[in-house]
Fold:
Amino acid sequence: MGERFQLTVNGTSTEVEASPDTSLLYALRNDLALKGTRFGCGSGQCGACFVLIDGHPTPACDTPLWSVAGKKIVTVEGLGPKGELHPLQRAFLDEQAAQCAFCTSGILVSAAALLERNHKPTESEVRAALDRNLCRCGSHNRMVRAVLRASGQAS
Amino acid sequence: MNTVTESKLKRAGSLAKNPRLSQWLSVHRDGTVSIFTGKVEIGQGILTALAQIAAEELGLAPERIRMVAADTALSPDEGVTSGSLSIQDSGAALRRACAHARALLLERAAARLNASIRDLRVEDGAVQAAGRSTSFWECASDALFDREVDETAAARPPRDYRVVGKPAPRLDLPDKIAGRPRYLQDMALPGMLFGRVVRPRYGFSKLVSLDDGKVKSMPGLVAIVREGSFVGVLAEREETAIAAQNALRKASDWDAAPPLPQDIHAWLKSHASDHRVISEKTNLEVKSRAASTLEASYTKPYLSHASIGPSCAIAHFQGEKLIVWSQSQGIFNLRRDLALALGMREDKVVVRHAEGAGCYGHNGADDVALDAALLARRAGGRPVQVQWMRDDEFAWAPCGPAMALTLRAALDPQGNVVDWQHELWSNGHSGRPGRSDSPALVAAWHLARPFERPAAINMPLPAGAADRNAIPLYDFPNQRIINYYVREMPVRTSALRSLGAYANVFAIESFMDELALAARVDPITFRLRHLKDLRARAVIEAVARLAKWEEWTPAEGRGHGIGFAKYKNLGAYCAVVAEVEVENEVRVKRHFIAVDVGLVVNPNGVVNQIEGGAIQSTSWTLKEQVKLDERGITSLGWEDYPILKFSEVPAVEVELIDRPELPAVGAGEAAQGPTAAAIANAVAHALGLRVRELPLTSERVIAAIERQ
Structure:
């Protein structure tokens, strides 16, 4: 059944044995014990499972293992330097920018990609960049403030 | 009557049911304190607020407090974490229990130091007198707390608070924001199997046939479990369980479910099984002054909880004992219904709470626990995790009930309301476990010997359920409020954040604006004219200032509107001013909100709940409705059930009116109704015409414009 796939996750090369159609989400969560990437809808519509693949926010639930061999995968656990939080994560804590926080990992991933390509986004650019991520608790405005704060723009 | 006075005989909060001091806390030798609560963290930040209360009364640094996750084997039974009651129930009990614990610890410390209590110097659990010292950790013992809570022990006066009333960062967020395992979904027990359940595409139909031949041979599949019409799969890997679930969905044949009514609101009005006049006031002399009358009907659709993470549970049979990890709001009630459905003794079942994705009412959390238990029964002693898929949650979790409302009122020549009538039609708003002879769990209704599906019920007033907030807080000389209960349920319904208050407040506050317009009076002036309650007036006046109501500049397609309620007529006061732009589609630009929750425990927590509530209510009000065809629910994914997106979310500004001298009440549901009404009133203000059916979609707005 299983094939071996060489993956680069958070800067570390690792191997997963699974069928080629296995979604990256379950390889991350169940084989590599990286639980920060969440299952939300299974069809790439909510953003809870976003990871960076070669720098692009991508739904892990919709991404089969065979398609990511040899690519650079970054999950929420790997956004910051080893063992440290990413400035976005610190800003999210400073702003208390969550309620249930189930959507947060995917939003951090989208926001990190945004700040990578746009160091000083405007508020509406932040909102546009997060539009593929759903939040149900209504923490949107706090998260937008946190992204602006992380980009060095006081809220 | 607007205030609830505490009787001297009545025990504070949950102490009535859990009077022993040892049920609430335990002081450890390492300088930490375990706090037990039956209330659970569902994304609202309750454990942080309760930790603040405990730290305050014990006089300890908050870092010493360890909040123990609710567990039927360890925790006080505090019923369900619902109704914005946790601060009242658990907070009030913990305040008394911790005050008593501190008094006992000081007594023992004084004895040890051979000093009188008033000569003790106490700082963060360290106690000194006459050059000698001891500590709470040395003085504590199991025996010391093995007694009833003495409520006469002096609690700290609010003016001396050092922890309560200050913003406290949430205890659970560092893990969640770092992406560390914290949710039930993240638990991985040794040998754990993954389970999924196969249900009919529509409704409560029976399994006719199942062709499981191909699925049986899937590598990694452990079992196909079938008990009557309950079908589930167990697999070593999660993706295998999902593949097997998908294959069995295609390979199963179910009989047809009974057809659903298409105009649900007309159907509700013609299917009431019971009605109750819940409030009546008569003053014929004033009524005779009626000069004009108005009538309007409003509707609210079925709403989905639509949490970002579908429900999950883990079940593990250990010998004769069943351990269940669940994100349920009511672990004790769940334990009861699990035991009932599984034919087990209740004392053989332990339910432990584990945090899940956001919970806004009775979703699939309880149901999936029975799914996991039924599969675990066939897992050879291995633990089983069941994660509902997105469509499972949309199709099978209870919906917030659809409601129909008709309001009538009469104005005297001066534009005062002299008569008010409110009728509402709804299914029950509580189908939770623990309240019926039959388990309120989906799988139980599909077993070989199926349990009967209990009808959702309504809790009685004053909190009420379908009729929550149906009695206006305004002082009307004549009024008649009727609650028509519809027992038969075309769609499974249960509690969703604020229950009937959302629709009742939407209708009452929309109608108040319609009356104000007829009376040619400013909506805020009109409300204040009919309102004596001082705290109610204060939030309305505060929000008018915050929003600069009187400085509004009219502009094409723009409008503002107000909505107000005192949640349940017992809890938080909340007034919202919404500002909108309407051009076919409604865009909410800003909300201004004034709130009075009495004593504020965690200001950041209250603001977060109110902001979040207002944004969620904006989403309900503008976009949301469960879609149905004659067979059943057809909105099974986000494409069919859109919610508010980042770019659509309004700015929200919240002002707290702190009243440290008054009891603290919950904030979680206070904004739902007032926000909806404020938006509807702002839309009417912008358009010069009114949309009375929720949600206020562009189709509805265009239809209203065309009707005119």
In short: Chain A has five helices and five strands. The mean pLDDT of chain A is 96. Residues 104-117 of chain A form the longest helix (14 residues). The beta strands of chain A are 3-9, 12-18, 50-53, 56-59, 72-74.
